[in-house]
Design a protein that fits this description.
Elements lengths: L1 E5 L14 H12 L5 E3 L4 E8 L2 E8 L7 H10 L4 H4 E11 L2 E7 L6 H10 L2 E10 L8 H5 L5 H24 L5 E4 L1
Parallel strand pairs: 1-4, 1-5, 5-7
Antiparallel strand pairs: 2-3, 3-4, 6-7, 6-8
C-alpha cells in the first residue's frame, strides 16, 4: 500500500487557491480512478482507496489546516504500518519555485513551508515530495498569505489543469511503481 497525501485547506473558500494546488492534483487523480471519498473524522481526513498499477493506494486530503497536517499523516502511517521513506508521497505547492516548476525530492528540510514543517516534525524528513512551483511576479505585489490564499489567474489555472496535473499523474504512477526519481522540470 502507498499513501498519496495532498497539502491544502479544507474549507470551500480555499478551493482552487494556490495553497490548495495539492488538493487540485489529488482531486483530479481521484476523478481519474473513480475514487469514492469518505471522511475519517477520527483522523481529520478525507480519504479514498484506489488501485494504481495493481497497487492499493490511499489518497488523503487532511481536514486539518495546511500548517497542521503532520499528525494526520502520522495516524495513517501508523495505522497501516507503512514506511514513510518508501510508501508516502506528499504533493504540495511551493512559493519558492517559479510557476510551472515541478521538483521531486526524497527528503529535506521544510524550507519555510509550515505544512512540510508539520509533516517533518511528525514523520521525519525522509519521504517523497512533489513540489509544485506557484511563484510569479504577482507575488512581489502582495504578502505571502494573500498570495498563497489567492486564486490562480485564468491562464495559470488552465496550465495547471491541462499540463501540470497530467504530468504529476505520471509522476505519481512512477512513485507507486517504485521508479520515481529525484528531478526538476518546468512545464
Amino acid at each position: 500500500m502507498k499513501i498519496i497525501f495532498a497539502q491544502g485547506n479544507p474549507d470551500t473558500k480555499y478551493a482552487r487557491t494556490r495553497h490548495n494546488t495539492g488538493f487540485m492534483v489529488i482531486d483530479a487523480l481521484g476523478d481519474k480512478y473513480d475514487a469514492l471519498w469518505r471522511d475519517v473524522d477520527k483522523y481529520k481526513a478525507r480519504t479514498a482507496e484506489v488501485i494504481i498499477n495493481h497497487e492499493k493506494v490511499l489518497l488523503i486530503k487532511p481536514l486539518s489546516y495546511y500548517n497542521d497536517t503532520g499528525l494526520v499523516a502520522r495516524h495513517f502511517i501508523d495505522y497501516y504500518k507503512l514506511d514513510p521513506t518508501t510508501d508516502f508521497l506528499v504533493v504540495h505547492d511551493d512559493l519558492s519555485l517559479p510557476f510551472g516548476t515541478i521538483r521531486i525530492r526524497q527528503s529535506g528540510s521544510d524550507a519555510g513551508n509550515n505544512g512540510i514543517k508539520s509533516l517533518n516534525s511528525h514523520i521525519g524528513e525522509h519521504y517523497f515530495r512533489i513540489r509544485i512551483g506557484i511563484w510569479t511576479e504577482d507575488r512581489d505585489l502582495m504578502d505571502d498569505v494573500n498570495f498563497v490564499l489567492g486564486k490562480f489567474p485564468k491562464g495559470e489555472q488552465h496550465k495547471i489543469d491541462k499540463h501540470i496535473i497530467p504530468h504529476i499523474d505520471t509522476l505519481i504512477e512512477q512513485f507507486v511503481q517504485g521508479s520515481l526519481e529525484i528531478s526538476s522540470s518546468s512545464i
